[in-house]
Design brief:
The protein contains 7 helices and 11 strands. The chain is α/β, with parallel strands linked by helices. An 11-stranded mixed β-sheet has the order 1-3-2-11-10-9-4-8-7-5-6, sandwiched between helices.
Length: 240
């Protein structure tokens, strides 16, 4: 795993600044730092940024509820990414289209596409227009859109850990986990070889807490939601 979490304002990595329509930034408070996505805050309240949109094909696994998945998608939109969601529950994702707004002719913004769980042609990602693909296909998702191009990030939304998802989980550059019940935490410990104290920490996370897991990375953080995001997403919660 190579995707990192860093303190905003202390970014030593190279990440571009993406452009985005001012109307979209008016709907969603900008939350990125040099192309990164501010996901939450640390124990001292410092903002923490994930390098989710990179020149390297990237996989991110989210283990938790729709709230977290939709917030990540909104923040990617806020830093100028195209977002394609492949899902069996399209109504749950329509708020992204609401946030993106409409074009001058009244048609939905092309920045957000809600698709079925079947292969489709994707927008071509680039440094100026990175692509976030969300696969919302249950606990054992099909790898319909593996990240094969620079500037493409594929996010796999897992409502819970399943043994058959271990290959997807192990291939991830970063894993974001919300609170897990004991049996799920034990499975997480087997998949990522976690020591007992980390396993116990996963079972005690609050609704607004997430653990970022990666290579040499174990970073608990607290989700931070802006007022405009609350209007779209509602209160912070573990699931839906």
């Amino acid at each position: 795993m190579s995707t990192g979490v860093r303190d905003a304002g202390q970014n030593t990595g190279v990440a571009p600044e993406f452009s985005v329509d001012p109307a979209l930034l008016d709907a969603i408070s900008p939350s990125g730092d040099r192309g990164g996505i501010v996901l939450g805050s640390g124990l001292k309240g410092e903002p923490l940024t994930i390098s989710a949109l990179r020149s390297t094909p990237t996989r991110i696994v989210l283990v938790g509820g729709l709230y977290l998945a939709r917030q990540v998608a909104l923040r990617a939109m806020a830093v100028g990414a195209w977002v394609v969601v492949a899902t069996g529950r399209p109504t749950a994702w329509q708020l992204l289209q609401q946030a993106a707004g409409t074009q001058r002719d009244g048609r939905p913004s092309p920045l957000v596409q809600i698709r079925r769980l079947s292969p489709v042609e994707l927008p071509r990602p680039s440094e100026d227009a990175p692509l976030l693909v969300v696969t919302d296909g249950g606990p054992t998702p099909q790898d319909l859109f593996p990240p094969r191009s620079p500037w493409q990030t594929t996010v796999y939304v897992l409502p819970y850990l399943h043994p058959q998802a271990s290959a997807t989980a192990n291939a991830a550059d970063m894993v974001l986990m919300q609170r897990l019940p004991p049996g799920q935490a034990e499975l997480a410990a087997r998949i990522w070889r976690l020591p007992p104290q980390m396993m116990r920490q996963l079972t005690g996370l609050k609704d607004d807490q997430v653990v970022a897991l990666g290579r040499n990375l174990w970073r608990p953080l607290r989700l931070v939601t802006t007022a405009k995001e609350q209007q779209l997403l509602g209160p912070v919660r573990r699931g839906d």
